[in-house]
Every structure is written in structure tokens, then in C-alpha cells.
Amino acid sequence: MEALQEIITQIPAAVGQFLMNYGIIAMVYLVVWKLFKKRLQNWRIQLKERVNAKQIKSELINSLFTLVVSTLIVLLIYFMKAKGYTKIYTDINEYPNFFAFGGFFIFLILDDTWFYWIHRLLHHPSIFKYIHKVHHKSIDVNPFTSLSFHWAETLLLTFWIVPVSMFFPMYVPAFGILQIWGFFDNLKSHLGYEFFPSWWNKSLGKVMTSSTHHNMHHSKFNGNYGVHFRIWDRIMGTEFKDYEKTFDEINERKKGILKQRVN
Ligand SMILES: [Zn+2]
Ligand SMILES: [Zn+2]
Predict the structure, then answer these.
(1) Would you say residue 210 has pLDDT above 60?
(2) Between the chain's N and C termini, which has fewer beta carbons within 10 Å?
(3) Residue 33 within any structural domain of the chain
(4) Cα–ligand 2 centroid distance for 35 (angstroms)
(5) Any domain includes 118
């Protein structure tokens, strides 16, 4: 009964968190896609604009399912925590410092690995049309695409948290940072614009993805499956061969060196 009460008290916070995320997405869309549209023309990854009201409407509807499933997972975690089934903790002294300070990096690598393999599975021709097709209906991606998934995909992509929270000491702030990082990384991937500078792929971008990286996944389909890192794509040979060239071309266009790019 206490666990149930704990869940009920957490519902407004879980829904509030999601709505706040949505507010950020809507604001980014308004600023980048509307207010500065003309000024940022050369920053666009796909020159041909294909987004229309129908696409945005369907992305908003899909987001409602994402809201329901992600809220249910959060509530399940709270329930398990209240029942004592997890190793989630808030007192930093409860486990060795390694878990508090290394937790974020471990979760990020876990999340990326889980995402890569589930994503590849969802692209398997025999199941693609049932689940992942929903997300790929958006070719010219925009901030609203970042939450536009089939409900089963949201469940599959986030479910790793449940078993990990049971067996791995999960320091709440470390996991909180992962949530914030994941949200903004996902938003960046579906921005439709490339804001990273030309030197990106010569430094951090050697291992981390860019907006162009995931944008090419939507426009070309079979490649660039990673979310946070390029590592799995490079190990498995699934990164588009022209990824870095495309990224450089967009940056040349931004500087006015290259006038057009065929996409
Ligand atoms: Zn995909
Ligand atoms: Zn996507």
C-alpha cells in the first residue's frame, strides 16, 4: 500500500518533467526553425525542407504515447525502489565513490550500446514495419521528431534501466545527469541544423556524434545507428562512408565557401 502511495505522489513530477522537456523542444523549434529560419539557412543539414503541418501533427500524437510509456517506466522504478528491489541511492556514502563519480559515464556507455543494438534489431526487415517505421516517417527531422516513437520502441529503448537499477548501485544525481544529457543529445540529433564547428570531427567528434550523423540516418536509412558515440558504428562498419565529408561540406556552406550541397 505504501509503495502504491509512493507511486501516486510521483505522477505529477513525472508528467511535469516530460512537459518541461516538451516546452524546451517547442522553444528550440520556434527559435531555430521559425524565428531564425532565414538567417540559419546555410546551417540546415537537408537543404530541401520537407516538414509540413501533417508531419508535426503526427509527431505530436506519437509523443503522447512516448509520454505514457516513459511515465510508466519512471513509476515502475519508484515502485521497485519503494519495495526495496533496487540499488538506487541518494546518500553518497552508501557505496564506494566509484559508483557516484563513474556512474554517469558507465550509464552513458550502457545506454549507447543498448541503443545501438536495439536500433539495429528494429531495422531488421522482418520487424521494421511494426515499430521503427513510425520514427522513420520523419525524413526531414525537426525537434518534435525527438519524441516521435512507437510506444514499443520507447519501452525497448529505455527498459535497460530496470534490470541495471536492480543490480548496479545507481546514484540518483549520476542518473539525473544521464537523463539531462540524453534529452539534449537526442534533441541535437533531431535538430535538422548543424551547429558544431568545422574542427568537431578532429577532436571530440572522433568519438561523439553530431546532428549531421543522425540526420543522415533519417535521410539515407541504413547506417549511423549510434546515439551518443560513433564507436559501435565504426567497430561494426555501419557508419556512412561520406559522413565526415558531408559534415565538412555543411561547415563550408556555413562559411560561404560552398554555396550548395545536393541532398
Ligand atoms: Zn532508425
Ligand atoms: Zn531519429
Answers:
(1) yes
(2) N
(3) yes
(4) 24
(5) yes
Dist CA 22 CA 181 (whole Å)? 15
Distance of CA 223 to the CA centre of its chain: 16
Specify the residue for cell string 534489431: 121
In a domain, 56, yes or no: yes
Ligand positioned closest to the Cα atom of 211: 2
Residue 178 CA to ligand 1 centre (angstroms): 22
**pTM score over 0.85:** yes
Distance 255 CA to ligand 2 centre (A): 27
Q: How far apart are CA 184 and CA 146, in angstroms?
A: 10
Asked whether the CA dihedral 221, 227, 229, 232 is positive or negative, the reply is negative
**pLDDT class of 262 with cuts at 50, 70, 90:** very low
What's the CA-to-centroid distance between 150 and ligand 1, angstroms?
A: 12
Q: How many domains does the chain have?
A: 1
Q: Which domain holds residue 82?
A: 2-193
For residue 103, tell me if it sits in a domain: yes
Please check whether residue 263 is in contact with residue 48, taking contact to mean a CB–CB distance below 8 angstroms. Answer: yes
Å from CA of 47 to ligand 1 middle: 21
